[in-house]
Amino acid sequence: MALKVIIFDFDGTLADTYDAFVEIANRLSEEFGYKPVNEQEQEKLKDLSARDLIKQSEISLFKIPFVLKRVKSELTHKIKELEPIKNIPDCLKQLNSQGYRLGIITSNAEENVVCFLKNHELEQFFDFIYAGTTLFGKHKIIKKLLKEKQLRPHEVMYIGDETRDINSAKKSDVKCVGVTWGFNSGEALAKQEPDYLINQPYELIAILDNYQYTIINDPSKVNPLTMKG
Q1: Which of 66, 166, 183, 207 could join 12 in a cystine, given CB atoms 3.0 to 4.6 angstroms apart?
Q2: For residues 182 and 17, what is the distance between their CA atoms, to the nearest angstrom?
Q3: Burial, 4: exposed, middle or buried (Cβ in 10 Å; 0-12, 13-18, 19+)?
Q4: Beta bridge partners of 8
Q5: Nearest 5°: phi and psi at 93?
Q6: Rounded to an integer, what distance in angstroms lies between the CA atom of residue 95 and that of residue 89?
Q7: 198 contacts: CB under 8 Å, gap ≥ 6
């Protein structure tokens, strides 16, 4: 019954791509006919789900796949400038040393993810990368992963910074951790009721230690835990 695999979202969870995404999205706004976001609006947008953000931008749903493709392409030129979230490299090293299998599921392009990991010498920590997922299709990839790796939902935990990450995990019946350092605010994430909510990467280590200890010593007491820093 032990937890075996930790899946991470990429943008905003592992990589600090928020500012780059906003800059690219604003630059493309006139071309694709949607509202750019000024500095004052950025914090408010963190309280919105991806679906609400799309509605507010007034972009045509037909254009969204094309915008995402361009954003990923533009991000390729910035990927070498981007940094990991603070303390994430040490956290990954600890998880790896504890025997967890680590992976990534992202809507970003695989070449961007691989380039980033190599730049920061993090590629050795990950067993798999599922990239290029649709905006709201991560749950399908998680289910595919479970089948391909012959895993049960209770053996997997998903870590993400957006409301859609939490929803995808729930649709796949895996435990989910919302992180407040990325694209969505802690308040927005809390509304989706993740199993755990953390403010610092090292809190993930504490959650997993607690979870594994409880599984081994008293499985009946494995309940969601919300950690607030």
Answers
A1: 183
A2: 9
A3: middle
A4: 104, 159
A5: -60, -40
A6: 10
A7: 177, 178, 179, 180, 204, 207, 227, 229
Domain ranges of the chain: 5-16+83-221, 18-80
Which tokens is 122 given? Answer: 């993090």
Give, in order, the Cα–Cα distances in Å from 195 to each of 105, 110, 180: 19, 28, 14
For residues 139 and 145, the answer to whether their CB atoms sit within 8 Å is no
Overall average pLDDT of the 207-219 stretch:
70
Q: Two tokens at 15?
A: 């990589």
CA nearest 201: which of 89, 41, 64, 45?
Answer: 89
| Cβ atoms of 184 and 158 closer than 8 Å | no
Contact yes or no for 161/167 (Cβ under 8 A): no
pLDDT top residue among 29 and 134: 29
Task: Report how far residue 207's alpha carbon sits from residue 212's, in angstroms, rounded to the nearest whole number.
Answer: 9
Please say if the pLDDT value at position 1 is more than 90: no
The fold of the 5-16+83-221 domain, in CATH, is Rossmann fold (3.40.50)
Q: Give the mean model confidence (pLDDT) for residues 23-36.
A: 89
Mean pLDDT, rounded, for 8-31:
94
Q: Is 161 a catalytic residue?
A: no
Cα(179)–Cα(162) distance, integer angstroms: 8
Residue 184: what residue type? N
Size of the chain in residues: 229
pLDDT tens per residue, range 31-81? 998 888 888 788 788 888 777 877 777 777 778 888 888 999 999 999 999
